[in-house]
Specification:
By secondary structure, the protein is mostly helical. It has one domain (about 5-235). It is built from 14 helices and 6 strands. It has helices at about 5-25, 45-60, 65-85, 95-100, 100-110, 130-150, 160-180, 190, 195-205, 215-235, 235-245, 245-260, 290-295, 305-330, and strands at about 25-30, 40, 120, 125, 270-275, 280. The longest helix is centred in the C-terminal third of the chain and has 27 residues, at about 305-330.
């Protein structure tokens, strides 16, 4: 149910939703197409609905605070993203608002003191001590960091949907390995990770090259915040961090090159540009920020399809390392 419900909703409702957005003029330029293609946006509201429905199915079948936490984080991050899609938020305001997504997670833990473990589990070395206050601070920091890392990776057809689907599978494997190591582990933690993977995988069929719809900030911010939440609830933070190394590196390159938080729509220059040959080229101007994509095409220009394949291949490698990290953590 946790996997099937989001898939059914996305495949059943997305075609009509695409037509609805187009009829309302909610379209944007596909910057990497030579003919100025218009693409409907944002898909975020429908993606939020699919995730919430999947988590709600888990709650109906087994009343637990775990799916409630996932729903609360999804709605808060989705609300911030949707406002950004419609009105626009500054580079500083958006991360600050995203810290609110940590509040329901921390409050639910105080009510149901088994939502997550205030420990980090490292491969070979085992768990750290239990520190509730320090862990709560880490949760607050994780929400804007993870959300913006996913958001900054949302630039090309199929990139964010494919990335999220792949890292979600790595997360599910990590939670499953931990579940097999602890007889008392609540398998609802495993079920709670399924709606994110199902939604991202279903969305990929509409978001892949050539995209029929973009997710918008309301989609990418939810993907990042919920991924962080599921990693915390599942107790697999380190393995999850390894899986999203491409997004972390991309964020680091951007922030270090522009020296601060700047909304990507307001950047003075673009890191890449579409050449007359129809391929993505690295921008060489002094104001162009550094990104992971820019580093990939620095050696030779690539078509958008090949560029996304390279990004997803890099993600697949990170996911393999994540699974190895999980194995070293739970089967030393």
């Amino acid at each position: 149910m946790a996997f099937a419900v989001p898939c059914i909703l996305v495949f059943a409702l997305m075609p009509g939703y695409i037509r609805f957005l187009s009829s309302k003029g909610r379209v944007t330029n596909d910057a990497h197409k030579p003919n100025g293609t218009k693409v409907p946006t944002p898909a975020g509201p429908l993606l939020i609905l699919a995730i919430v429905a999947g988590e709600a199915a888990i709650y109906i079948l087994n009343e637990s605070s775990i799916p409630l936490a996932a729903i609360a984080v999804t709605l808060v991050a989705g609300g911030v993203g949707f406002y950004d899609d419609i009105r626009g938020l500054g580079g500083i305001i958006k991360p600050l608002l995203l810290t609110v997504a940590a509040v329901p997670l921390i409050l639910l833990e105080r009510v149901h003191q088994s939502l997550y473990s205030a420990q980090l589990y490292f491969p070979l070395f085992g768990a750290t001590g239990t520190h509730y206050i320090i862990f709560a601070v880490l949760i607050v920091a994780a929400m804007p960091v993870a959300s913006n890392a996913f958001n900054m990776l949302d630039a090309f057809n199929g990139e964010i949907s494919g990335f999220t689907a792949m890292v979600s599978v790595a997360l599910i494997i990590a939670v499953l390995l931990r579940a097999s190591d602890f007889a008392s582990f609540d398998f609802i933690r495993l079920a709670a990770a399924l709606p994110l993977a199902a939604t991202a995988l279903s969305f990929y069929f509409f978001n892949r090259y050539p995209s029929k719809i973009f997710d918008g900030d309301s989609g990418s911010l939810v993907f990042g915040a919920l991924f962080a939440t599921l990693a915390i609830i599942g107790g697999v933070e380190i393995a999850a961090l390894v899986a999203v190394i491409p997004a972390v590196l991309n964020s680091y390159f951007i922030l270090s090159s522009i020296k601060g938080f700047v909304e990507h729509k307001r950047m003075a220059a673009r890191p890449t540009y579409l050449g007359e040959d129809g391929k993505i080229h690295a921008s060489e101007g002094p104001g162009a920020p550094t990104t992971l994509v820019k580093m990939i095409v620095a050696r030779e220009p690539l078509s958008e399809r090949d560029l996304v394949r390279s990004m997803l291949a890099l993600t697949a490698f990170a996911c393999v390392l994540s699974v190895l990290t999980s194995a070293l953590t739970w089967f030393p």
